[in-house]
Amino acid sequence: MSDKDEKNGDGLQSVVMTMHILEQVARSPRGVGVTGLANTLGTSKSRVHRHLQTLVQQGYVTQPEDSERYEVGHRLIALGQTVFDSSGLQRAAQDPLLALRDALGHSAVASQFTPDGMLVIETIPGRSPIEIGVRVGSILSFHASAQGKVATAFSSPEFQARVLRNKLELFTPHTITTSSLLIEEFAQIRRQGWATAPNQIALGLDTLACPIFDASGRVCGSVGIVDMVQQFGDRPSDLHIRQTQLAANQISERLGFAGPA
User: Fold this and answer.
1) Segment 131-169, tens digit of pLDDT
2) How distant, in Å, are the alpha carbons of 15, 148, 214 from that of 255?
């Protein structure tokens, strides 16, 4: 269909083209460019570009600043979570999250890895009379949240470099924004298997997070416990670490992960 056909034709064709573009972006784990989409869909680059710009504005597709490729956005992932089948991360996390909350009493949270950050997909409130946690649908940064740090640490060196190239926002005076310090921290997280971020995303708040892996062995999310910094101290207890790692392992197994990462 030509650009003229789209302007004069049925709006339904525009919807169909949008869906085709979303499908192609979702099937391209490393992203896809305008030319590739136009060739695959048999249409013009200008038409594809117009659709992509609308999808980017709405958050269904994202384009990294240093790339000409387009990737899945957080809103498309969030939408997919609502229709995910029984093998999906949200469903797989429900029982282990509840068990983690019951074992430790802290709020428990599961997050999905997305190109824009860690998308919170499931939370179980803690037993404290004061509610402490994060909202479902929140996007947590890769450099300042425990969920983002642990996912980045277990990602590829290329992805870590991408995180460090982007703007490292200073959320609090304790947020680490120095690339060399973050590189050292990612290495330490990978060795120990867990991450914390006391006072880094919000003053007084801390999270202990462990990575979740999918059937291919790639990190796809994280599971963690959230509470005030004084509840964890300078270092989480062995019990906290053990129970959080147990929950992460259970979720990973439900997703088909057989190790090692």
Assistant:
1) 677 788 889 999 999 999 999 999 999 999 999 999 999
2) 33, 20, 5
- The CATH architecture assigned to 3-72 reads Orthogonal Bundle (1.10)
Nearest to 207 by CA among 103, 259, 132, 155: 132
Q: What is the reported pTM?
A: 0.67
CATH 3.30.450.40 fits 78-254, yes or no: yes
**Residue the block writes with tokens 């136009």:** 38
DSSP reduced 3-state for 221: strand
pLDDT tens per residue, range 69-84: 999 888 887 776 555 4
Most distant CA pair in the chain, distance:
66
What is the DSSP track for 61-113? EE--TT-S-BEE-HHHHHHHHHT--TTSHHHHHHHHHHHHHHHH-SEEEEEEE
